[in-house]
Amino acid sequence: MKIAVVTDSATYLDFEDVKKYNIHVMPITVIFGKQTFLDNVDITTAEFYKRMAADPIMPSTSQITLGQMQDMYDQLADEGYDAVISIHLSSGITTFFNNLEQFVPSVTNIKVYPFDSMIASAGEANLALLAARLVEAGKTPEEIIAALTKFRDTIDAYFVVDDLSHLVHTGRLSNASSLVGNLLRVKPILTFNEDGQIVAIEREHTMRRAYNAIKKKSCQRL
Questions:
Q1: Which residues make up the CATH 3.40.50.10440 domain(s) of the chain?
Q2: How far is 187 from 182, CA to CA, in rounded Å?
């Protein structure tokens, strides 16, 4: 059986890994005002951060469309793939994965196995890399999904942002109500909960103390 691995650009996978493991990355649309860019296609990560720092208006994103997903699945079917492991951004911060699950039964030319990463960035990337390695090892789609589920349960992510306002504005910080009024005075340590939502678990008053707290938590996991 020929199996493909598909993910989205929220993984920020290195180009070398994408090429080495033959991972298909769907670009998320980045929006600056009236201009739209396909992530890591029309705009690089470095260009994105440079523009974000200079632009007074915070950028937004647009979900990958189901039409784009269908085009990708059609392409893979035409290339002789029998199945797709489709790993995507946490359903706790976007509705895309739930929409994809509802859409998948209509895909008839290739078997699609959607997988909710319940995380983003490096955590999602590591899941995609594991799937690709298991494909190389000759595992079945069912075996790969089982291994991804087991691995996902071991992943933790801790992070801190300098300004919470965008997470609050977009509704991506699920327990924001407990922090409103203190947004400028605290540096909350953030993580993904069991539902794949971003939550604040601790508060520090400086970025240095927040970093130190994250380092301590990371060491405790080793």
A1: 3-28+63-152
A2: 9
**pLDDT of 76-131, one tens digit each?**
999 999 999 999 999 999 999 999 999 999 999 999 999 999 999 999 999 999 99
Q: Let me know if 206 is exposed, middle or buried by CB neighbors in 10 A (0-12, 13-18, 19+).
A: exposed
**Cross-sheet strand order for the sheet of 3-8:** 23-26, 3-8, 83-88, 111-116
In whole angstroms, what is the distance from residue 149 CA to residue 127 CA? Answer: 9
The ranges of the chain annotated as CATH 3.30.1180.10 are 158-221
pTM (two decimals): 0.89
Q: What are the Cα distances from residue 192, in Å, to 61, 104, 173?
A: 20, 26, 10
Please state, in angstroms and rounded to a whole number, the distance separating the CA atoms of residues 23 and 5.
Answer: 5
Fold of 158-221: Hypothetical Protein Tm841; Chain: A;domain 3 (3.30.1180)
Q: Does domain 3-28+63-152 have CATH number 3.40.50.10440?
A: yes
Give pLDDT, residue 221. Answer: 65
Token pair, residue 199, equals 């939550």
